[in-house]
Design a protein that fits this description.
The protein has a single domain, classed as Aspartate/ornithine carbamoyltransferase (Rossmann fold, 3-Layer(aba) Sandwich), CATH 3.40.50.1370. It has a five-stranded mixed sheet with strand order 2-1-3-5-4, sandwiched between helices. Strand 1, helix 1 and strand 2 form a beta-alpha-beta unit. The chain is α/β, with parallel strands linked by helices and about 100 residues long. It contains three helices and five strands; from the N terminus they run βαβαβαββ. The chain is globular.
Length: about 100
Amino acid sequence: MQVFLLNCQVMALMFYEVSTRTSFSFAAAMERLGGRVLHFSEPSSSSRKGETLEDSVRVMSGYADVLVVRHPERDAVRRAADAAQVWEREGFLLLPGAISFRLG
């Protein structure tokens, strides 16, 4: 019997740099646990029109229960965590330039 621990939960993957293994490992884990995944890709996002990381994180945090952010800039992890609509911050530094945290 398969148990869906994250049924009805949504994870947003916000990648501002190319990644295969990291993005697919998060997506596969979420889907195997019954959740859904939203993919944010910097080349096709409003960041091309000047939207900041903070603006994008604020918008995506309204759509998702969990955010995973990967960004090449040194302070992007802190800026993303500060901008997210996080009521109870449970941040986990995963890799240099990547963070995952639960929203709400």
